[in-house]
Design a protein that fits this description.
The protein is α+β, with helices and mostly antiparallel strands. The chain folds into five domains: about 90 residues, Zinc finger, CHC2-typedomain (DNA Primase, Chain A, Alpha-Beta Complex), CATH 3.90.580.10; about 130 residues, DNA primase DNAg catalytic core, N-terminal domain (Alpha-Beta Complex); about 120 residues, Dna Topoisomerase Vi A Subunit, Chain: A, domain 2 (3-Layer(aba) Sandwich), CATH 3.40.1360; about 80 residues; about 120 residues, Orthogonal Bundle (DNAb Helicase, Chain A), CATH 1.10.860. Helices cover about 50% and strands about 10% of the residues. The longest helix has about 35 residues. It is globular, with a radius of gyration of 28 Å. The C terminus is likely disordered.
Length: about 575
C-alpha cells in the first residue's frame, strides 16, 4: 500500500470537511447538509452538497464527488499523493517517512524544476549582447528593468534545440522535457526540438510561486502570434490565471480582468497590481470559481473591439454563476489598457475604473450599438431589448433604469414596466424549462455511468448490486451473515464487481468502509461513482432481508447473463419503485 489505511482514516477523523471546503466554496446549511455552487462547473442553482456525517461531497450537476482528498485533488489540480500530503498538513499530521510511493509527486517536482530552469534560461538571454534587440523591444513597450525582472520576462532563441540542449546538460531527460511541453518530439524522425523559438517569453506562475507554464509571443506579424504551454501534469490551461500570484493579496478584494500578458504587466507597472488575465481564448467556469476565492468583485476590461465585446458577454454569463460582483470598463482611448496607459497615462485608467459600469448599465449601453435609436423602429427595438435586460435585474435596479429610460425616450414608465413584467414571465418559463432539462439530464446520468458502461443495459442487476454495496458500506456488520450467500463473482457488472471485492477486503481487514478508503485503488472519477452509490443507498437495502433480496436478484441476473439472455429489461413498476427512491430530496 502506498499510504496506510490507518493514516488516511486519521486524516478524516481530524479534518472537518465542511470547514475545509468552506475555504473554497460558500456553503449554507440545508438541514443536516451544506449546499453551495459547485466549484467544478458553472451553475446558478446550487447542486453541490457536503455531507458532514459521511465526510463526503457530491455534485448533482456534474457528478464530482468523494472525500476531502478527492476535493483537494480536483480543486488544486494535485495527484493523490500530493493531495494526501496537503490534507495531512491541514490536519497537523506528518507524512510517513517510508512506506508510500511518491513517484508521481517527484515527477511533478521534476517538471516544476525544469520549468524554473527554463525561465532562468529565457531571462538570461536578455543579457546576451546578440539579443540586445529583444531587451529593446520590452523597453520600447514602456517596461522598466524592474518590471522585466518582476515578471521574469525572457526570450526563446531562434534555435531548434537551444533550450533542450541546455536542460539536458542539467540532467533532465527528453521524456521529462516533452512531458513539460518545453520540448516536442518529431513524428517523422523522433528527434526532439524546442517548443518555443524566436519569441519573447512570459512565465506563468501559480499562487504557490511555481513556474507552471509559458506563453511565447512573436515580435512581428507572423503566425501563430502566441504559442502557449499545453496541459501538463503541473498545468491545466482552463484553470490558468496570469499574475494571480501577485494580485491575490490585494486588500480591496477586487480583481481587474484584462486580455493579454502585456496588458497585465503595464497595469501592474502603473500601480494597478490587482490586474490579471485568464489564459486561453475565453474565461472558463473553472477560472471564474478560482477568482471567487480571492475576490468579491471583478472588473472586466477586455479589448475595445468586436472580439473583446464578445468575450465580455461570455464572461458576464459565466461570472453570473458565481457570487462575485461584476463591473465592466469600456477601454476608450485605445484598443486595450496597455495602449491607453502608453498614450494617455495611468490617470485615464484610474478614471475608467472609477466609472466602471455594473452589468445592467453595460448591457443597456451595449444595446445602443445594435439599434438606431434615432428612428422610431430602432427605439422600439431598443426598448424591447432593454426590457428583457431589466427583466433579469433586481426591483431596485428596475426602478432606477425604467425611470431613466422613460424620461430619455419620453414614454410612459408604466408601459415600460408592463413590458418588463411580460419579459420577466417569459424568462421565468425559460428558466423553469431549462431547470427541468438539467434535472432530466441528472436523472438520465444515473442510468449511464462512464465508470460502469454496462450499467445502462443491465440496470436491474446493477441497481441490486449498488443497493447491496451501499448497505454493506453503511452496515459492514451485515457481512458476517451474508458472506456465505454471495461472492464478487456473482456480480454482473465489472465495475461493481471491483467495488464489492475491495469493500469485502476492507470489512475483513477491520478497516473503515467510508468512501475515503476507496481512493487507494480507484481513480477520482471512480470514487465519484462510488459516492453516488453510497448516497443513493440511504433509503435502500438497509435491512438484512433487503440485502438478501438484492443477492437473489444479482444471482438471477448472473444466470441470465451466463445463459445468454439480456436480463436488462425491467417492468414499469420496478422502474418506478427504484427511481422514486433515487429521486428523493437528499436533504
Amino acid at each position: 500500500m502506498a499510504i496506510s489505511r490507518e493514516f488516511i482514516q486519521d486524516i478524516h477523523d481530524r479534518l472537518d470537511i465542511v470547514d475545509m471546503i468552506s475555504s473554497y466554496v460558500s456553503l449554507k446549511p440545508s438541514g443536516r447538509l451544506y449546499k453551495g455552487l459547485c466549484p467544478f462547473h458553472g451553475e446558478k442553482t446550487p447542486s453541490f452538497m457536503v455531507y458532514p456525517d459521511t465526510n463526503s461531497f457530491y455534485c448533482f450537476g456534474c457528478g464530482a464527488a468523494g472525500d476531502v482528498i478527492n476535493f483537494m485533488m480536483r480543486i488544486e489540480n494535485l495527484d493523490r499523493m500530493e493531495a494526501i500530503k496537503a490534507c495531512a498538513e491541514k490536519a497537523g499530521m506528518t507524512m510517513p517517512e517510508e512506506g508510500y510511493d511518491d513517484s508521481l509527486a517527484k515527477r511533478r517536482l521534476r517538471l516544476l524544476s525544469a520549468n524554473r530552469e527554463a525561465a532562468r534560461f529565457f531571462n538570461a538571454q536578455l543579457n546576451d549582447e546578440k539579443n540586445r534587440n529583444i531587451l529593446e523591444y520590452f523597453l520600447k513597450r514602456g517596461l522598466t528593468p524592474n518590471t522585466i525582472k518582476k515578471f521574469g520576462l525572457g526570450y526563446a532563441p531562434d534555435s531548434w534545440t537551444a533550450l533542450t540542449d541546455h536542460l539536458k546538460s542539467m540532467g533532465y531527460s527528453e521524456q521529462e522535457l516533452v512531458l513539460a511541453n518545453l520540448t516536442k518530439r518529431s513524428d517523422k524522425n523522433g528527434r526532439c526540438y524546442d517548443n518555443f523559438r524566436n519569441r519573447v517569453m512570459f512565465p506563468i506562475i501559480d499562487v504557490r510561486g511555481n513556474v507552471v507554464a509559458f506563453g511565447g509571443r512573436v515580435m512581428d506579424d507572423s503566425k501563430p502570434k502566441y504559442v502557449n504551454t499545453s496541459d501538463t501534469p503541473v498545468y491545466k490551461k482552463g484553470a490558468g490565471i496570469f499574475a494571480l500570484n501577485f494580485a491575490k493579496s490585494n486588500p480591496d478584494k477586487r480583481l481587474i480582468l484584462v486580455e493579454g500578458y502585456m496588458d497585465v504587466i503595464s497595469m501592474h507597472q502603473a500601480g494597478f497590481t490587482q490586474t490579471i488575465a485568464c489564459l486561453g481564448t475565453a474565461l472558463t467556469p473553472e477560472q471564474a470559481n478560482i477568482l471567487s476565492r480571492y475576490a468579491e468583485e471583478v472588473v472586466l476590461c477586455y479589448d475595445n473591439d468586436e472580439a473583446g465585446a464578445a468575450a465580455t458577454e461570455r464572461a458576464l454569463r459565466i461570472l453570473a454563476r458565481t457570487n462575485l460582483s461584476v463591473k465592466v470598463i469600456r477601454p476608450e482611448g485605445g484598443k486595450d489598457v496597455d495602449e491607453i496607459i502608453r498614450t494617455h497615462g495611468k490617470d485615464r485608467i484610474a478614471g475608467l475604473i472609477s466609472g466602471a459600469m455594473n452589468e445592467v448599465e453595460y448591457s443597456l449601453a451595449a444595446l445602443r450599438y445594435r439599434f438606431n435609436i434615432l428612428t422610431d423602429d430602432g427605439r422600439l427595438k431598443y426598448l424591447t431589448a432593454a426590457a428583457e435586460v431589466l427583466a433579469d435585474s433586481t426591483h431596485i435596479e428596475t426602478e432606477i433604469y425604467t425611470t431613466r429610460l422613460a424620461n430619455e425616450f419620453g414614454i410612459s414608465k408604466d408601459a415600460l414596466l408592463a413590458q418588463i413584467e411580460d419579459a420577466r414571465k417569459s424568462l421565468k418559463r425559460k428558466r423553469a424549462a431549462q431547470q427541468r432539462k438539467e434535472e432530466q439530464k441528472i436523472i438520465s446520468s444515473s442510468f449511464a455511468d462512464k465508470n460502469n458502461p454496462e450499467r445502462e443495459k443491465k440496470l436491474r442487476a446493477a441497481s441490486a448490486e449498488e443497493r447491496l454495496i451501499a448497505s454493506l458500506m453503511r452496515n459492514p456488520d451485515y457481512y458476517k451473515k451474508l458472506s456465505g450467500k454471495f461472492t464478487p463473482e456473482d456480480f454482473v457488472t465489472d465495475f461493481n464487481r471491483r467495488v464489492i471485492a475491495f469493500l469485502i477486503e476492507l470489512i475483513e481487514g477491520g478497516y473503515s468502509t467510508e468512501v475515503s478508503m476507496f481512493g487507494e485503488c480507484f481513480t477520482s472519477e471512480e470514487v465519484g461513482s462510488i459516492t453516488r452509490i453510497y448516497l443513493n443507498g440511504e433509503e435502500a437495502a438497509n435491512t438484512l432481508k433487503e440485502c438478501e433480496d438484492c443477492i437473489e436478484v444479482i444471482k438471477k441476473e448472473k444466470a441470465k447473463s451466463t445463459d445468454g439472455f439480456s436480463g436488462g429489461d425491467i417492468t414499469d413498476e420496478q422502474f418506478a419503485d427504484f427511481f422514486s427512491k433515487k429521486n428523493k430530496d437528499n436533504e
